[in-house]
Each structure stands twice: as structure tokens, then as C-alpha cells.
Automatic annotation (TrEMBL):
It comes from Otus sunia (Oriental scops-owl). Residues 724-736, 801-821 have a biased composition (Low complexity). One of its GO terms (cellular component) is protein serine/threonine phosphatase complex. This is Serine/threonine-protein phosphatase 4 regulatory subunit 4. Residues 704-714 have a biased composition (Basic and acidic residues). Residues 768-778 have a biased composition (Polar residues).
Length: 845
């Protein structure tokens, strides 16, 4: 033991120095292998290649005189050489590779097999050229002494067979196969022959297979080595598909029956699995007389003498039971069901129901086997529901379902969680019977189980709510009483773990809850939890998942008070939060709101808070906002949101003028170009309303104008009549006597004094009104006729004395005109009254 070195007190005594020396010696021992691994100058010289050589010349040189690692690199680079220069590669490089492979090691052989397969897949050459150049090399290396190398070349050959023409396969592969499959050949050669024959069965017609391949198949099924018999037995499925139903019944089925009784357990297992896979090719007689007795013997021996088949039997049991369903008697049906129940609890209980005390004495291998059996039973549970009929689930299978969901091993519960949705679909209206197991799996301690269940959680919950007897909105929560605590527990367990992907997936699936439970339950148990996750969680995908789910909850919340409270918290705690990270999440949330809500909702509550972030002190926030601006603008409608558009344009101008960060400014300029190309949607309804309002205003004005003109037209018509009556009376050249003149004169005076003044006042008002309202002055047809029929010379002189563009006098000229007309009328009245008084005096005298 070396003394403890304390650096605070340096001790340079002799013992400590020796300790240091020994430590240094240990370090030199560690360094020795590193020094030995370095290349010597001679080795470096041998690895050096002339740089002026072409790729083909370098490849030939390295394959001829280079080291193994260099030759392997050339073989790995063969697909590249074939793409660049296929002719020279086939002529110069490939023959060298063929020579080297005879003495090459395992690494180069495996690399060559992969490269040859890559050349085939890339179709660098035609299939004819490939078969001529590469196929012989593949066939030569099939019987390599290393099993791994042989299998690699075999996989390449099987892929090549798919692309080769029939004639090439017959001459190059099938004919040599006859000799390679003989008993005198090596074990590896016979195993390769078995797999090749299984591949060839799909390439030729049935009569060729019967004549040339089936004799070899029978021979290999009787091979002395159990590995060959097992390999050939597994190829019988492919051969049966190639030869058809009739030959399968007469040739393949007898071989399978014989192999099922083989002394080798692996041979019996292969025979059993092949028999199950070929069930569809057998008719009812073959199933009842041949297959069913064979399967029954397998089941009976599996617990007693042949446990090796137990795992495979449990895996294929569901397919086997449904495949033989039509030929089962009620007794056989019950027997297979009991056999399944027994397998489902294998390793947990004895037949009497007590705990197995020998479980502790079992080997680890047996425990793994029993776990695999129970896992396979969980896998086959949906198939067993079909077997017993979903109506009989509670009576026949519920106890097994309960045991599998509470199994102590995680793989078993994981498999049940995966198949839970299939079980729920099969039960349909009876799905409520398994709601307790749903709660149990949600509360499972393993996150793997929870992750498997959550994949179809929305569908399962929907079936639970709508498929059960207690359907209806009022019984949403009552149908699964413990659902909400189970869901919250699952989320909390996922949140405290390091598996954030499971947490993200869970939050995404929780978006289905508005269809499952009431809005109040979501508000008090889940909505605020989502907001907390956004504020406190450190994983971005989890925060985004919580933000989107929160928006979904908000979307389906119909209570305005709760809505406003959540919106206020989003704006205050995220949009106006102290952490720039929260402000970034606010923009993510706004993006989800634009996706889930209407445009008007976003504009009403979030448009202006988003624009406020243009003044954010952190460049990343402004940058993210710039990326979001096109979506923000797409929510606007004109003319409803005209003021918001002005705010948006103002913010963009400020960013262009005041932004100092180069990256942000670049994005702002790019965003401005994108915004300029965008077209804002027009609110047709709002435009229609505004049009109607404008039409209403103009209609009111037009109605008033029309009413005024109507009154004016009436007055002008009266004036016209008075003028037409007075003018002929005054200009008449004939007199019928003094009394007629007196009466006409009096009527004329009285008519003119009563009707002329109001008309003048109306005409005086018209220009003033038209100029005040801004409309162009117009006179009706009746008014025009009245003006044109007017015979007063003074009126004509005044009207023509105005500007040539004006057809009618101005208000001041009309006033002067009407005043002079009034004065003339008054003078006429006075002279007429004076004349009448003189005449009366003469008549009286």
C-alpha cells in the first residue's frame, strides 16, 4: 500500500519519493502498449501509395501487394468504383478480388458479401453482367468454413435469386444443387441447400418443383443430422406455397407428421410451427383427422416430457384455437380454454391455487421461460376473446385478464397494456367491465407500461364513455370513478422521471379529456397543471405539448369567467413574464391559439400582447416574433381589424428603424417581404353592413331632397299657371268693356300677389341648400319649364349676365332680381289702384 499523499503538506521524504517513482513506473507500463501499436518507418513505407495513381490502378496495387486492411478497404469501396468506372472495375479489379478472397480473412469476406449485395441493389450493371461476373464468386464462397461468412454469402445469393432470370437460376444454381444436397456433402453444404430450395420454390412452376425439387426435399427431411431436418422443415412452408394445395396435402403434410414425431426437440418445434402456419391450406377433414390429434399430443406433452415447445405453443395458441374453431366439440373447446388459463398463470400458482413454494428453487432459465409463456398469453388475449365470444368474457376470461394486468413481471403487463385497446374494441358494449384494470395500468409503477397504454388512451376512454351502459354527458365522470386520480398520478410520475418522451406523449393524449370528463373537472384538476408545466418544466417538447393541451382545454371551456382568468394568466405570466423563456413559450402558445381558435378570438385577446414583444430586450424573442408575424397578419380581416393592421405596420416600422441586432434585422427584412406578398382577407359581411349603412344615409338624404323638390315642383306649377294666366290678360289687344278689364285686372293682381312671393323665396333657398350640402344644384323639369316660360325681360337680362358656365343666377343676383320684380309689382299696384279710384269718382259723379 502506498502512503496517502496530502497535497496541503508536501512531504518529500525518501519513502514518499519511492512511492512517486513506483507510480511513474506504473504509468510507463500503461504507455508501453501504446508505443508498440505505433507503426515503424518500414511499415509506414509499405503502407504508402503513389498519389498519382488512378483509383483503378490504386485498387489493383493494393489488392496485389498491399496489406489486408488495405485490401479490405478496396473491397468496401467496390460499389463506388462500379458507379464511376464499371468497365475497368470488372476487367481489372474484380478478378483481383476473386483471387484474394481464396486466402482472405473473415473481415474481408464479410465486407465482400455486403459490397456484392450493394452493387446488385444499386443496379450499377445489368443483371446479365452481374450474373456473369459476380455470381460465380458468390457460389464459390457459400461453403466457407466460418458459419458467419457462409450465412453472409447465402443472404447475398438469396437476394440475387430474386433478380435472376429462370434459365440462369436453372443452370447456375438448381443443377449444382442436386449434388450439393447429397448426404456425402458437408453439413454446411446441406444446410445451404435447404435454404436455397425454399427460395427456389417461388421461382418455378409446380411441375418443375415436383420433378426436380421435391425429391431433394424428401431426402433432406430424412437427413441424419437434426440441424438439416430442422432447417428443411422450416422451408416446407415456402415449398407448400409454391406447389399448391393438392401437392401440399399429399407430399408436405405426411412429412410434417413424421417430423412432428422426431426425436429431436428442435425438429418437433419446427414441425409444429410450420403446421400452424399452414392451417389455411388444409380442409376440414385434414384439420380434424390429422392436425387436431397432433396438436392435442403437443399440448399434453408440453407440461410433462417436452417443455421446449411450451413457449412456441403459447405464442401460437391464439392462431391455433381460432384456426381449428369450426371442428372443436364443446369438450375440446373447454379443454383448450383451460389449457390457456393454465399457461396464463404458469410459474405463479399451483393447480390447487396456493403459491408455488418451489418457485424459489427453479432455475433462472425456467423463470425466463415461464415469463415468456405468460407474455405470449397476454399477446394472445384478444384472440382468446374471439374464441370464447365477447359475451362470455366476464364468465370465462375476466379472472385471467385480472391476473395478467396484475402480473409481477413488467413484460407481461407491458404486453397487456399494448393489447388493451384491442380488448376494449372486442368487448364493445361490455367494455365497462375492465375499467378497474385501466385504472390499475395507469397507476402502474413502470413507465414502460404507462407508455404502452397511453398510445391508444383517447380511443380507450372514448369506448369507456360511449360504449358502456352509462352513456351520456351526465354520467361522464360517474362511469369511471377513479379515472381522474389515476390520470393525475400517471402525469406526476412521468413528470418526476427522466423519460421526458413519455411525459410529452402523455400530455398530448390528455388533449382528449374534454370529450371524456366535465369542463369543471378539467379546469380544477388539469388546466392549471398544464400552465404550471409550461412555467416550470425544463424540456421544450414537454412545454409545447402542455401548451397545446392547455389551448384545447381553453377551447372547450364555455365559462367566460374561467376563460378570462386563463387568458389573463397567459398574458401576465408568460407574455409579460420576467424570464425570456416564458415569453418564448407565450409565442408558442399563441401559435396554437391561432391553430385552434377563430381569427377574431386571437385578435381580440392576443394580437396586441404579441405585438408588445417587438420591444422585448432579448433578441431571441424578437426573432421568434418576426417568424410568427405572417401568421399574425393572416388573422386580420378588413375593415374590421383596420386599427390592428395599423398597429402591426407601426411595429414593423419600429423594428426596421430601431433594431440593432444583425440577425434579427435580417429576419425582419425577410419577413417584411413576405408580409408584402400576403393578401389580407376581406370581411364580406362587415363590408355589406357598411354598404347598407351608407346606403341608408344616402337614402335619407335623397328622400329629403326628393320631398323638397316635390314641394318646389308643386309651387312652380302654381306659379306657371299664374304667369300663363296673367300674361295673356295684360297683352290682349281686344277689349270687351271696362267691367271685363276691371275684373281681369283685379284677378290678375290678387293672383300675382298671393302666388309669386312664395315661389321667389323657394328659388332663393335652393342654391343655398345645395351649396351647404355639397351636392350639385339641380332643378326639376317642372322648375325649368317655369323659368323658361317666364317672360320678364329683367329676369332674362340678370340670368344671362352671369358667367357663361352657370345656367342659373347666383343667390345674390337672384335676390336683386326678385327685389326689382317686387318693386315693379308694387308700382303697378299703386298705379292701378290710383286709376281705379279716379274711375269710381267719375262714375259716382
Amino acid at each position: 500500500m502506498h502512503p496517502i499523499i496530502i497535497f496541503s503538506k508536501m512531504d518529500f521524504s525518501q519513502s514518499n519519493l519511492f512511492g512517486y517513482i513506483e507510480d511513474l513506473q506504473e504509468l510507463t507500463i500503461i504507455e508501453r502498449p501504446v508505443r508498440r501499436s505505433l507503426k515503424t518507418p518500414e511499415e509506414i513505407e509499405r503502407l504508402t501509395v503513389d498519389e498519382e495513381l488512378s483509383d483503378i490502378e490504386r485498387a489493383v496495387y493494393l489488392l496485389s501487394s498491399g496489406q489486408d486492411i488495405q485490401g479490405t478497404s478496396v473491397v468496401a469501396n467496390l460499389p463506388v468504383l462500379m458507379r464511376q468506372n464499371p468497365a475497368d472495375t470488372l476487367r481489372r479489379v474484380l478478378p483481383k478480388i476473386r483471387e484474394v478472397l481464396h486466402i482472405a480473412g473473415v473481415e474481408m469476406q464479410l465486407t465482400a458479401a455486403v459490397s456484392f449485395l450493394t452493387v446488385l441493389q444499386e443496379e450499377s450493371v445489368s443483371i446479365h453482367t452481374y450474373s456473369h461476373s459476380f455470381l460465380h464468386i458468390i457460389l464459390q464462397n457459400l461453403e466457407h468454413r466460418d458459419a458467419g461468412v457462409s450465412n453472409a454469402w447465402l443472404e447475398t445469393l438469396l437476394a440475387v435469386i430474386e433478380a435472376l432470370p429462370k434459365e440462369t437460376i436453372r443452370h447456375e444454381i438448381l443443377n449444382p444443387l442436386v449434388s450439393k444436397a447429397q448426404l456425402s456433402q458437408t453439413l454446411q453444404s446441406r444446410l445451404v441447400s435447404c435454404k436455397i430450395m425454399g427460395k427456389l420454390a417461388n421461382k418455378f412452376e409446380a411441375h418443375i418443383i415436383k420433378r426436380e425439387i421435391l425429391p431433394l426435399v424428401k431426402s433432406l427431411c430424412q437427413d441424419v443430422e437434426y440441424e438439416v431436418r430442422t432447417c428443411m422443415c422450416r422451408q416446407l412452408e415456402h415449398i407448400a406455397q409454391g406447389i399448391g394445395t393438392e401437392l401440399t396435402k399429399t407430399v408436405v403434410l405426411p412429412e410434417l407428421i413424421e417430423l412432428a414425431r422426431d426425436e429431436g426437440s428442435s425438429v418437433r418445434l419446427a414441425a409444429f410451427e410450420t403446421l400452424v402456419n399452414l392451417l389455411d391450406m388444409f380442409d376440414a377433414d385434414d384439420r380434424s383427422q390429422t392436425v387436431l390429434p397432433l396438436v392435442k399430443s403437443f399440448c399434453e406433452k408440453s407440461f410433462k416430457a417436452d417443455e421446449s415447445i411450451l413457449v412456441s405453443l403459447s405464442f401460437h395458441l391464439g392462431k391455433l384455437c381460432n384456426g381449428l374453431y369450426g371442428i372443436f366439440t364443446p369438450e375440446q373447446h373447454l379443454r383448450f380454454l383451460e389449457f390457456y388459463k393454465k399457461l396464463s398463470t404458469l410459474g405463479l400458482q399451483q393447480e390447487n391455487g396456493h403459491n408455488d413454494n418451489q418457485l424459489q428453487l427453479q432455475t433462472l432459465e425456467q423463470e425466463k421461460k415461464y415469463i415468456s409463456v405468460r407474455k405470449n398469453c397476454a399477446y394472445n388475449f384478444p384472440a382468446m376473446i374471439v374464441f370464447v365470444d365477447p359475451k362470455n368474457f366476464h364468465l370465462e376470461l375476466y379472472s385471467i385478464f385480472f391476473c395478467l394486468c396484475h402480473d409481477p413481471e413488467v413484460p407481461v403487463r407491458y404486453t397487456m397494456a399494448i393489447s388493451f385497446y384491442e380488448v376494449a374494441k372486442l368487448l364493445n358494449s361490455g367494455v365497462y367491465a375492465i375499467h378497474k384494470e385501466l385504472v390499475t395500468l395507469l397507476q402502474d409503477e413502470s413507465l414502460e407500461v404507462l407508455d404502452a397504454l397511453v398510445g391508444h388512451l383517447p380511443e380507450i376512454l372514448e369506448l369507456m364513455i360511449n360504449g358502456g351502459e352509462n352513456s351520456g354527458s351526465e354520467s361522464k365522470l360517474l362511469s369511471i370513478p377513479d379515472l381522474i386520480p389515476a390520470l393525475t398520478t400517471a402525469e406526476q410520475r412521468a413528470a418526476t422521471s427522466l423519460k421526458w418522451r413519455t411525459h410529452e406523449k402523455l400530455l398530448q393524449k390528455y388533449a382528449c379529456l374534454p370529450h371524456i370528463i366535465s369542463s369543471d373537472q378539467i379546469y380544477y384538476r388539469f388546466l392549471h397543471r398544464m400552465l404550471t408545466i409550461i412555467l416550470t418544466n425544463n424540456v421544450l417538447p414537454v412545454q409545447k405539448a402542455a401548451a397545446r393541451t392547455l389551448c384545447v382545454y381553453l377551447r372547450y371551456n364555455r365559462k367566460q369567467e374561467q376563460r378570462h382568468e386563463v387568458i389573463q394568466k397567459l398574458i401576465e405570466q408568460l407574455g409579460q413574464g420576467k424570464s425570456y423563456w416564458n415569453r418564448l413559450r407565450f409565442l408558442d402558445t399563441c401559435e396554437f391559439i391561432m391553430e385552434l381558435f377563430s381569427k377574431s378570438f386571437f385578435c381580440k385577446y392576443f394580437f396586441l400582447p404579441v405585438l408588445e414583444l417587438t420591444h422585448d430586450p432579448v433578441a431571441n424573442v424578437r426573432m421568434k416574433l418576426c417568424y410568427l408575424l405572417p401568421k399574425v397578419k393572416s388573422t386580420l380581416k378588413i375593415p374590421t381589424d383596420k386599427h390592428l393592421l395599423q398597429q402591426l405596420e407601426l411595429c414593423i416600422r419600429k423594428l426596421l428603424c430601431q433594431e440593432k441586432d444583425k440577425d434579427v434585422l435580417t429576419i425582419v427584412k425577410r419577413t417584411v417581404l413576405e408580409l408584402d406578398r400576403m393578401e389580407i382577407s376581406v370581411d364580406a359581411e362587415q363590408l355589406e353592413k357598411e354598404k347598407q349603412q351608407n346606403e341608408g344615409r344616402s337614402a335619407n338624404v335623397n328622400d329629403k331632397m326628393f320631398e323638397k323638390k316635390r314641394r318646389d315642383s308643386k309651387t312652380s306649377s302654381v306659379l306657371t299657371k299664374s304667369i300663363t294666366l296673367s300674361v295673356p290678360g295684360s297683352s290682349s289687344g281686344t277689349s270687351t268693356g271696362k267691367e271685363d278689364k276691371k275684373s281681369k285686372l283685379v284677378r290678375s293682381q290678387s293672383f300675382s300677389t298671393q302666388a309669386l312671393h312664395p315661389k321667389y323665396s323657394n328659388i332663393d333657398k335652393c342654391p343655398n341648400k345645395s351649396s351647404a350640402t355639397g351636392y350639385t344644384s339641380s332643378v326639376s323639369g317642372m322648375g325649368k319649364s317655369c323659368m323658361l316660360s317666364f317672360s320678364d325681360d329683367s329676369f332674362r337680362s340678370h340670368s344671362t349676365g352671369n358667367s357663361g358656365n352657370s345656367a342659373f343666377p347666383s343667390s345674390s343676383s337672384s335676390r336683386n332680381l326678385f327685389n326689382s320684380a317686387d318693386q315693379k309689382n308694387n308700382g303697378n299696384k299703386e298705379s292701378q289702384s290710383r286709376k281705379m279710384s279716379i274711375k269710381n269718382r267719375k262714375s259716382n259723379s
